[in-house]
Design a protein that fits this description.
Blueprint (H helix, E strand, L loop, with lengths): L4 E12 L2 E12 L3 E6 L5 H8 L7 E6 L2 E2 L8 H5 L2 E4 L11 H11 L5 H14 L15 H13 L5 E5 L7 H16 L3 E5 L3 H6 L3 E6 L2 E5 L13
Parallel strand pairs: 3-8, 3-9, 6-7, 7-8
Antiparallel strand pairs: 1-2, 1-4, 4-5, 9-10
Helix pairs in contact: 4-5, 5-6
Length: about 240
């Protein structure tokens, strides 16, 4: 594992249930990097993200994520690993019966924060980061889709993670809202975190170019800088 590496995967086999979706996966991602994962639905993008998050066990190969080895990772270490990861979902997964602030308080409480003043200060910091400092009292249904996604990003930042894993974060958003989300994600990357984003939003990729890996034919391969991507072949 290289000095600045936060994700190091070698000769890995990635499964979804008992189905092998990616074989011989080799992936090295450093701090400060923004990385896209592209490919058809079912090509292995989400399964790779879930493997990095230790949601899917690593059966073959080696992987080190934020200092944790994923081969046979002990159950008690999985929450510790996940505190170093921020997850951004397409479908938000907010608690609908609680305000924005209460959603964030719940996460901090569940991850070991106990001092009320520190909890409130951290919530204020992350809401300011996503330009929602005046909407913490609102319920999720009172927010637009873009605002809800900003809350999800704020939630992902609560424990100051080394890595942000974003699975189709602009999938349900209009172009202008998607643009705002991308600006926030790139600002996060500029603070020293690695951002890994699975996406089908190829217009966003053209506007915000970054290192890109393609899942295709059960293989993960890096797209060369000047390589033209055949987006039509990667559609649903």
């Amino acid at each position: 594992m290289l000095l600045d590496s936060v994700i190091s995967i070698k000769d890995a086999e990635i499964y979804q249930n008992d189905h092998l979706v990616l074989s011989d996966v080799n992936l090295e991602i450093n701090k400060h990097e923004f990385v896209y994962l592209i490919g058809r639905v079912g090509s292995g993008k989400t399964s790779l993200i879930k493997t990095i998050n230790a949601e899917i066990p690593l059966r073959e190969g080696t992987a080190i994520v934020s200092g944790y080895s994923l081969e046979n990772i002990h159950r008690k270490n999985i929450p510790l690993l996940r505190r170093k990861l921020g997850i951004v979902f397409q479908d938000f997964q907010l608690l609908t019966d609680r305000s924005v602030i209460e959603n964030l308080r719940f996460v901090l409480g569940a991850t070991g924060w106990k001092v009320k003043k520190e909890i409130e200060q951290r919530i204020e910091e992350v809401l300011k980061k996503v330009d929602l400092e005046f909407k913490g009292y609102k319920m999720p249904h009172q927010l637009s889709g873009g605002e809800q996604q900003r809350v999800v990003i704020a939630r992902a930042l609560l424990n100051d993670p080394e890595i942000i894993l974003a699975d189709e974060p602009t999938g349900n958003l209009d172009p202008d809202t998607s643009d705002g989300i991308m600006k926030i994600l790139f600002e996060i990357q500029e603070t020293g975190r690695a951002v890994v984003m699975a996406t089908h939003n190829y217009s966003i990729m053209k506007k915000y170019p970054a290192r890109t890996f393609k899942c295709e034919g059960s293989k993960l391969s890096e797209v060369k800088k000047n390589e033209e991507i055949n987006f039509e072949s990667l559609e649903l």
